[in-house]
Design goal:
The protein is mostly helical. It is built from 19 helices and four strands. It has a two-stranded antiparallel ribbon. Strands 3-4 form a two-stranded antiparallel ribbon.
Length: 466
């Protein structure tokens, strides 16, 4: 029989697992140990003197720091390393009761939740920071006209603020999903022991409260076997990755020289090794790639928890931690980097405004004006407008070149009566003006200044109150 641990098992499993636990679980483990020991003393399960000796040992370990506890075989994991030091410092009679009425199962489940909720809190803060800079840019560009697109083609005039508020609204839902995931996570499994609880009269509620949990995982088997707190967080991050990758894609298109809608700040620009003129906004490419990694990493978490035993298993314990915590750190990096990138964007308002009506994006308003001001049924107005646009495009005309005569000719070609009052130059100008198009759309959620300001204020207020 070989001696534990096998060198390969040590190198591939124990050492990397120990390193991951050292990064994420050291402080939660000390806190959980303190709470457990205090509860044991309150319940009369250990003497106050032993409680104090164990607490003193834990304080010594905290002062020593995790650097004092490198992996040393044959120790299996960080738990045994810390317990061994407690027994050494507090003595076997006291330190040997640290694990009374507790298992590595409920302790490990609790430590994962404690580490996760801290990361969730950081993610929520970072999401809110990004929302804040997006809304700040929106506030600065309430009047910035731009062409809006459907199916990647020019569709209707909009504003840069309205577009940014759409992204901020989606990100607010991402934050809400993460907040809900944190609520699911922040429930204590401690006291479940192996998975059947314990024969000792422990107080699960007091331990949960001391450690900042909002309640208990009541069923002890569920407390040990549950993985949905990891999955819900991964899902929230995967959805956020989709939100932000689409945003980054749009920013990359807007930053192309052909579009010229915005420029990325010089602090995020890289040059070419051969082409002196190049100004590459590669920060957005790095973001897009890392968001893809985030998307794939979330899927790894789902696959790893799929079709495994519902109970104590390494699949959703040590083996889950490293990829999961890496997933959260990648998300934090993406949020921080995108926040700084967005906050320093330079928007080319003149280029956007000049293109707001290109491709006859105001055609909808011409049809609407024919209904609203001249009494045509919408389908008839749609036909008139389509004919006007086809005629103008064939002649190489822009929306500002459309005349009253062209509109009247389209009415005649449709076999419709001329309206009263007649179509005149002022009607043609107003109906095809992108600024008036935007200004007229003040229905809730619209691009008009009144509707947009109300929407922006609501988003800012919601963020400030959260």
């Amino acid at each position: 029989m070989g001696t534990f641990p096998h060198p390969l098992y040590r190198r591939l499993v124990l050492e990397p697992t120990y390193a991951g636990a050292s990064r994420h679980l050291f402080e939660p483990m000390l806190a959980a140990n303190r709470a457990h020991v205090r509860m044991l003393a309150r319940q009369g399960l250990i003497e106050p003197a032993c409680r104090d000796r164990i607490l003193e040992a834990l304080k010594t370990i905290e002062d020593m720091g995790i650097e004092a506890f490198p992996y040393r075989p044959p120790t299996e994991d960080l738990f045994f390393a810390i317990e061994g030091k407690v027994i050494e410092l507090a003595g076997p009679d006291c330190g040997g009761n640290l694990q009374l009425a507790r298992s590595r199962n409920d302790l490990g489940a609790a430590l994962g939740r404690m580490a996760l909720r801290e990361l969730q809190g950081r993610l929520i803060v970072a999401q809110k920071a990004l929302r804040r800079v997006i809304l700040s840019q929106a506030r600065a560009h309430l009047g910035t006209l731009m062409p809006g697109h459907t199916h990647t083609q020019p569709a209707q005039p909009t504003t840069f603020a309205h577009y940014l508020m759409a992204v901020a609204s989606a990100l607010a839902r991402d934050t809400a999903r993460m907040e809900q995931a944190r609520k699911v996570t922040n429930r204590s499994p401690l006291g479940a022991a192996a998975f059947t609880t314990t024969g000792f009269p422990i107080d699960r509620e007091s331990v949960a409260k001391e450690l900042g949990f909002e309640g208990l995982m009541v069923n002890a088997h569920d407390a040990i076997g549950a993985a949905d707190h990891y999955l819900q967080t991964a899902s929230a991050l995967q959805i956020m990755a989709s939100t932000l990758s689409r945003f980054c894609h749009d920013l990359l298109i807007m930053a192309t020289r052909e579009v010229g809608a915005l420029t990325v700040d010089d602090s995020f620009i890289q040059i070419s090794s051969i082409m002196p003129q190049k100004r590459n906004p590669v920060v957005l490419e790095h973001l897009r790639a890392r968001l893809a990694q985030l998307y794939g990493g979330a899927q790894t978490v789902f696959v790893q928890a799929h079709n495994v035993f519902y109970g104590d298993t390494q699949d959703i314990e040590d083996e889950m931690h490293d990829p999961f915590f890496a997933l959260c750190e990648t998300a934090l990096d993406c949020l921080d980097l995108l926040t700084e990138t967005v906050s320093t964007l330079n928007i080319n308002t003149q280029v956007l405004a000049a293109r707001a009506a290109a491709g006859f994006t105001t055609a909808t308003e011409l049809a609407d004006a024919l209904v609203r001001e001249r009494g045509y049924p919408f389908r008839s107005a749609h036909g008139i407008t389509s004919r006007v646009v086809r005629t103008a495009l064939a002649a190489g005309l822009e929306p500002a070149d459309v005349t009253a005569d062209m509109i009247n000719a389209a009415i005649d070609a449709q076999g419709l009566p001329r309206p009263t009052p007649p179509i005149d130059a002022d009607f043609a100008r107003r109906a095809l003006d992108p600024a008036l198009f935007v200004a007229s759309r003040n229905v809730m959620g619209g691009v008009g200044r009144q509707a947009a300001e109300a929407m922006l204020t609501a988003l800012e207020t919601e963020l400030a109150a959260s």
